[in-house]
Amino acid sequence: MALVGIARLASESELLETKRSVQYFEMAARSILNRTSPRMPFQWTINPYRGCELGCKYCFARYTHEFMEMDASDFEDKIYAKSAAAQLLRRELARVERKEQIAIGTATDPYQPAERRFGRTRSILEVFVRERGRRLGITTKSDLILRDLELLREIARGNVLHVNFTITTLDEKLARLLEPRATRGRCGSTAHRCS
């Protein structure tokens, strides 16, 4: 999509909600699947959101807001929920060969706090529950993924599914500096913090 078109879509987006200094927008999307370059280990990506509320200081994807003629610092404060994600995915899956890998959450965390409100990732997973023979991966830092555990089990019954967790550090102070809004690492059960 041309840069002008992306900037226009962002400027026309409807404000969904504001939280703290974070604003949520509905963003019309023409496509939910994105083709990757041949050097990537997966052929397709899905990012249900544009922008990421977790605020990781080292994030490579901040520049994507610049494509919408926004400041890169808006990446964690202006979150765009892509509309009709499930419908788009159902339509677009026909062009994806079953041997090709699809990665969910490559430029934004699919389980960032916005997911609790808008459920775009869940709607995408509900599409994959009906699929067979797909190769899928999800990358997240959030324990919100546990909400969808039954869906993930059902997807794994008919597809190859990899779930990747990013844990940068178990040092609480350093984690707050690097990833101010990310879920903190835990050992064993959710009741025990790592020391």
Detail the topology: elements first, then pairings.
Elements: H1 3-11, E1 14-19, E2 22-27, E3 33-35, E4 44-46, E5 49-50, E6 78-82, H2 85-92, E7 101-104, H3 114-118, H4 120-129, E8 135-140, H5 149-158, E9 160-165, H6 172-178
Helix pairs in contact: 2-4, 4-5
Short description:
This protein is of the alpha/beta class and 195 residues long. It is built from six helices and nine strands, in the order H-E-E-E-E-E-E-H-E-H-H-E-H-E-H. The longest helix is centred in the middle third of the chain and has 10 residues.
Task: Give your account of this protein's structure.
With 195 residues, this protein is an alpha/beta fold. It has one domain. Helix content is 25%, strand content 21%. The chain contains six helices and nine strands; from the N terminus they run αββββββαβααβαβα. The protein has helices at 3-11, 85-92, 114-118, 120-129, 149-158, 172-178; strands spanning 14-19, 22-27, 33-35, 44-46, 49-50, 78-82, 101-104, 135-140, 160-165. The strands form two sheets. A five-stranded mixed β-sheet has the order 3-4-7-8-9. Helix 2 (85-92) packs parallel to helix 4 (120-129). The relative contact order is 0.15. The model is unreliable at 1-7 and 187-195 (pLDDT under 50).
Mean residue pLDDT: 84
Question: How much helix is in the residues?
Answer: 25-40%
Annotation field: number of helices: 6
Return the string of H and E elements: HEEEEEEHEHHEHEH
Q: What's the domain count?
A: 1
Q: Which consecutive residue ranges, at least 5 long each, have pLDDT under 50?
A: 1-7, 187-195
Largest sheet entry: 5 strands, mixed
